[in-house]
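USER: Please consider what follows.
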Amino acid sequence: MASETSSDIDPPAAGPAVPPIRRLRRPMTGWVALTAYALVLGAAGAGLIVQYQDRLNHQIDLRQARLRTGGDVITTTARVAAAEIDALGTAAAQAMDRPPVLRLPFLRENDRFEVPPGPGMTGRLTGRLPDDPSTMPALLDEMAAVATIEPFVLGALRQLPESAWIYYMSARRFLLLYPFGAGDAARYSDALMSAELMVRARPDTNPTGRTFWTAPYEDLGGKGRIVSIVRPVIAAGATLPAGFRGVIGIDLTEQALARMLDDMDLPDGTQMLIDEAGHVIALSARDGDLPAVDDTGMPDRIWQAAGGTGDLAARMDAQARGVLKPAGAAALFHTRIAGTPWSLIHIDAMSGLKTTVLTAMWPEALATLLLMMILGAFESHRRMLRRLSHHRTALALRVEELDRARQDLAAARDEAEAANLAKTAFLAHMSHELRTPLNAVIGMAETLKAEVFGPLGPKQMEYAGDIAGAGSHLLELINDLLDLARIEAGEATLDEETVSVDDIVRPVIAIVSARARKAGHVLHLMTPSRPVTVSCDSRKMRQVLINLLTNAVKFTPDGGRISLVARLMPDRSLTFTVTDNGPGMRPEEIPEALKPFRRVESDPLVRRKEGTGLGLAIVASFIRLHDGTLDIASRPGDGTRVTCHLPARRTVLVDSVSSMSAGDGNRQ
C-alpha cells in the first residue's frame, strides 16, 4: 500500500512535473458543464413534452367543440322538421274531423286519377281509384280534408329549405305532394304502400302512433338519397287502428345534410352522419360519393383505415365525454343529434393532429432551448410555474365555493316554488269551498228581495239588498282569486270560438253602463265599420274589457269621460283601447299595478276604492293566453289609456254588404 502511494506522488524523473491540482480540475470543470447542460436540456425537453401533450389535448377538445357546434346546426334542422311534422299531423287530424268544404275535381286515367292544381292547392294530388265504388265518397272526403292543410305545408317549406318533399300519403292509396313535381316519378305508385315509411306507420307496427325517422333510401322522385321524418295521421277523436288515415312525411336530402357537414370548421378527417343501425345518412363531400344504402360497414372501415383499433360502435359507447383520446393511430369524435336516431362522428388520423401541433410548436421549442441555456431564466420560469400553481389552487377553491353557493340558491328556489304551489292550491281549494255558500247567500237574498215568501219592510228590503250586494262583491273577489290560482298553476286554457267584435263589446257595455251612469260618467263605444270576427275565448275577452272599464269607472272622478274603441289596424290585427280622464299613474307605477295584489297608493282617491288589485294582473294573463300584448300609457293628471292588441291571425273580415255599418263607427 505504501509503495503504491509513493509511486503516485513521486513521478519519474524523466518526465516534467505536472501539478496534481491541474490534472484534477480540467475534467471536473467539463463534467460540471456537461451536467449543467444535460440538466437544462432535460428540463427543456420535459417542458416541451408537457406543452406538446397539452396542445394535442387542446386540439382534440377544439375539434370536439367544433363537431358539437356543427351537430347543433343539424339538431336545429331536425327539431324544426319535428315541429313542422307535428303541426302538419295535428292539422291533418283536425281536418279529418271537419265536414268537407269542397269536393276536388279529378281527371280519370284508367284506374288512376289526378287532381289538377287550382286555387287553394298548388301541390300534386294523384292516386288509384278504389275497387269498391261504395268507398269513393270517403276517398273524396279525405282528399278535400287534406287539401285544406296547404297553408301549413307552404309554411313548412319556407321553414325547411333543406326539405326535398313534404307529402301526405293516404292508406286509401293517394298521394298529395309538395312542391309540385311533373312526370311519372312525382306521382302515386303502388310501391309506396309497401315502403318503409308506410309499413312502420301502420297500427300493427306502430301501435302508439309515434313519429319516426326512416333509414336513408333512394328518392323515387329523382332527388337522390333522402331520409324522412314520418308521423302517422290519426283522425281526431278516433283510436287506432280504426282512426289510421295515412302519414305525413318530410324528406331531407343527403346533399343538404352533406353541406352542413362541409360547413363545419374541421380541417382534416371524415365527417359522417349515421343512424343506430350504422347506415350512412350523410358524408362530407370532400370524401366522395356516399356508399350503397345497405353498406353499414363503411364507418368501421373508415375507422380502421385511419388507424383505429376495435369496433367503432363499442368505442363510441365507451366514451364518457364524446371524444376518444388517442387509440392507436386514430381519434374519434362523436355527438348525438337530439330527437333523432342519428350520431355525428368525425374520424381523424392522429398523424394529422400531431403534425399540426408540431408545426405550430417549432418557434416555442427553439425559444425554449435558447432560454433554458441560462440557469437564471430556468429558475425564474420554475418560480413562475409555482405561482401559477398557487393561483390555480386558489381558483379551484373559489370555483368550489361558487358551486356550493349555486346549490344553495337552487335549493332555496325549489323551496320558494314549492311554497308558491302550495299557496296556489290553497287559494283554488278555498275559492271553490267559498263559492257554494256564497251563491246560496246571494240566492236567498235575491229571493227575499223578490218577496217570494211575503212582503218585507223597508229596512228588511234594504238589508236584503245589502246582503246580495256584499255577497256578489265577495263572489267577484273569489272568482278573481280562482282565476289567479289557475293562471299561476298553469291551468288556464282558452275555450276558443269565432265571435264578432260586436258580440264581445255590446254585453260589456250593457254590464258597465249602469255603474257609469250612477257615477255620472259619459261612456263612448266605437267599433270597426266593417263586420269583424275574432277567434278567441269570448268569456275571457269580455272579462278583460269588464275589468278595464270597471277600473276606469272606479278611478275616474264623477262626471268623467270613458271610451272603449275596437279598431282594425292596417296589418289586420285588432286592438281594444280603454281610455279615461282619471288621475293617471306615474310611469314607474305601471309595472307595480300589473302585479297581483298590488295597488298604486300615490293618490288618496285610489286608497278609498274597493278591490284586491287583481284586475290588471288577470287582464295581462288573459291577453298573453291569446298571443296578444298589453300596453298601458298614463301620466298623472292626464288619465290612462290601456290597449289590448290581438294578432292578425285571429281576425277575419266578413265581406257581406248587408252586415256593413254606415259611417265611421258605432257610438254609444
Remarks:
- DSSP finds 16 helices and 22 strands in the chain.
- Confidence is low (pLDDT under 50) at residues 1-28, 656-668.
